[in-house]
Amino acid sequence: MKSLQRAMSFTTRSLKVRPESIVFSKDQLLPHIIDKDTDENLKIAAKELQTTNNVIGFPTETVYGLGGSALSDESVKSIYKAKNRPADNPLIVHVSSLAQLQSKLLPSDYQIPQIYHRLINEFWPGPLTILLPVRKGSPISKYVTANQDTFAVRMPQHPVARALIAISDLPLAAPSANSSTKPSPTMAQHVMHDLSGKIPIVLDGGSSNVGVESTVVNGLCSPPMLLRPGGISVEELKRVGGKDWENVQIAKRTAESNEAVKTPGMKYKHYSPNAKVILFINCGDGKESISEYIKSNNIDLDKTKVALLKSKQFKDYNGIEVVKDLGKSGEDISRNLFKLLRQVDEEDKVDIIFVEGVEETNEGLAIMNRLNKAAVDVVEK
């Protein structure tokens, strides 16, 4: 299926919300909101979702999401239109509680498979997405699932995301709130950069603290599969999941063009700024490999603006003036990756971005998944 038609035009409002003013008590379905403006702005956004087919930008702990009712074909179409997203790329549904998942999306007699119980108890709310079957008569829009027999669902940890879903009483289909193929947004200003004029509202709740999208797992097959690495590492899945998850298989990084996929991030070009991203793997302090790449590709640093995103081992390189530090820990690199890719692309307006790769363990698997998809060239020693 091709991308759906172009989105209509809006005057996009950015509404401030204070995450720290939102409190969910245990077993409480609706939040207690201390800040009056936050309460009012959440109600404005919820009403937009309830009374129109429009979609809105909102913060989650992973990245900013672009949400519309998962129960409405027209709302989900609006997501694809705003992002210019291919319609065979399925979406993740976000719920505010297990009670909402059960009452809104699942048959009354359906029990969530045992294989997920330990993971849900540990990681919900949080950056973990699971696959569940679509049963006959399901209320979920076929545009969410891309006409497949499973749907992906998670319960976000971010209080603004969870409050918006609870107040609207709507499970929200929500991919990242960016133009399709661009780096995911981790700040409201990123959403405004990509989607201003295409959506009516962006809820500004500050920076996302994880920085990469959720981990997606399929426990409906044996052995279970990791479909997309993200905010929960493989090591954490095995530790918490126990014997059921000790042999978890990792899906290939990119699906074929004619292959149906059960989760976002497996098929199309993703996470790419306008500048060319060059990924360096196992290149020590980077100096020799960068020199060789510049020479072999006839790059004139006086005429070509280059940025260097370094982390654990790379040193500064003479002639590259735009240098950003991704951080040393996996958590810091995850949090900073999309933000700095956007910063050097949109603000510094560089032509090429050199990025230091990391080991594919713990958070590194998700980081390298994104970087390999963003890169137009990979240098590996």
UniProtKB/TrEMBL annotation:
Chain segments annotated as coiled-coil in the UniProt record: none
Keywords: ATP-binding, Cytoplasm, Nucleotide-binding, Nucleotidyltransferase, Transferase, tRNA processing
Species for this entry: Candida orthopsilosis (strain 90-125)
Gene3D superfamilies named among the record's database cross-references: DHBP synthase, Threonylcarbamoyl-AMP synthase, C-terminal domain
Catalytic activity: L-threonine + hydrogencarbonate + ATP = L-threonylcarbamoyladenylate + diphosphate + H2O
Name of the protein in question: Threonylcarbamoyl-AMP synthase
Main location: cytoplasm
Classification via Pfam families: Sua5_C, Sua5_yciO_yrdC
Annotated YrdC-like domain residues: 39-232
Any one GO MF annotation of this record: L-threonylcarbamoyladenylate synthase
Cited PANTHER family: SUA5, THREONYLCARBAMOYL-AMP SYNTHASE
GO CC terms: cytoplasm
Function: Required for the formation of a threonylcarbamoyl group on adenosine at position 37 (t(6)A37) in tRNAs that read codons beginning with adenine. Likely catalyzes the conversion of L-threonine, HCO(3)(-)/CO(2) and ATP to give threonylcarbamoyl-AMP (TC-AMP) as the acyladenylate intermediate, with the release of diphosphate. Required for normal translation, by ensuring translation fidelity at the level of codon recognition, appropriate translation initiation selection and maintenance of reading frame. Also involved in telomere replication.
Family per record: Belongs to the SUA5 family.
Transmembrane spans: none
InterPro entries: DHBP_synth_RibB-like_a/b_dom, Sua5-like_dom, Sua5/YwlC_C, Sua5_C, T(6)A37_SUA5, TC-AMP_synthase_SUA5
Binding residue positions for ATP: R85, N89, T150, S176, S184, R228, Y271
Protein location: Cytoplasm
